[in-house]
Specification:
Length: about 475
Amino acid sequence: MTFKIYDSASRSLRTFTPLEAGKAGIYLCGATVQGSPHIGHIRSALAFDVLVRWLRRQEYSVTLIRNVTDIDDKILAKASAAGAPWWAWGYKYEKEFTAAYNALGVLPPTYEPRATGHIPEMIALTQRIMQNGHAYAGNAGNVYFDVASLADYGSLTRQSLAELHVDTSDIEEDKRSPYDFALWKAPKPGEPASAAWETPWGAARPGWHLECTAMSEKYLGKSFDIHGGGIDLRFPHHENEQAQAHGAGCEFARYWMHNAWVTIKGEKMSKSLGNSLLVESILQEYPAALVRLALGTVHYRSTVAYSEETLLEAAAVWERLSGFVKRAAEMSGEIARAEIAELPAAQLPVDFQAAMNDDLNVAGALAVIHEVVKVGNNALAAGKVAEVQKCQLEVRAMLDVLGLDPLAAPWREEDTASSRYQEALDVLVQRLLAQRAAARAEKNWAVADSLRDTLLAAGITVEDSAQGAHWKISGK
């Protein structure tokens, strides 16, 4: 089977053909560490985590570069307002992003370069762009990209200069055109001296776009396979990244992939709406596996409609999937993680392969997982140990592609931590169920109903059967 991805540049589904057989180089725009990570940030990380997992499952050697933007206007402004050093402010939130990635099972990148660690590369890149006639120096410290000099500017987002709209009320006086953008910026009054570097054009700090172009070239070369990021980065960030690379004589990215937004109550999540949801706050209320399932099993180009109902639906799905895996492991023996991780894509169900090869159709892939779980549950009921083990292998390997194998880190640790609370809760609930059973035996229906209502008020549903009463958590 061939793997096809939707290329944002050509706006078409294209067969993935890497530059080098068996290898895949990916550059993903990472965090600008000005504040705590919210679910919009993590949605992008999860989407491209699935891409990496699927490529590796197909036995590609993947190099993933996910940068950290640790110097920019907002970081400087927020650090100054808080009375903190800008570098300490950025590092604080870089650690928060790392903690969020780890909590949600995002695989670490091959390299995670910081912008401030690549000033020499940015200077060299700027010199090449200027030598090729695509950039010019303004006032001391300022260097601008000459947009009109590049014939294919706007090709990524299919815009011409005539179609672009620029706010002309705040244009730098040393710009030749309002469309030109900064490669280097002179320090502003009041900014700390440590936030500027000596360059051939004066003391300056790098522009946001320049950082990514320089880092992608350093770690992936002048041409690489896939560039990814949120849909909101297409213009101007990715357009300008590509312009710089082309201006320096580089081919740059051969495929572009962009994930869609997260919406809350039908509106794009943004701070202006007052509805940015921090990952740390959500994880205090909900298990991380549910958050990953809710955000990570919607097609990356589709909007995620985030709500409490979304998480409750994810809880029901997770209970079914993880419950089967645990029961299967108990009956047939737990399959080692190495065997799960090493099972090649070609040995997974054909329909699962087809779904994932169709531009990472995770919804279709999840439907296949549910079908195998159904087969596995029937095998459990019939006591067919060999079939149960086969289903365990397939289900866990498919879930692993989605980053959700219940017996892998971090979900195993999460489950272990919560099991003590589950055991304690079970003791209390069983005691109430015993009292209810005694009341029913005495035909004291008022007491029996009262006990059931008490459990229901606590979010616990009681189901009566010939084998006795069973309970489950119906809410959070």
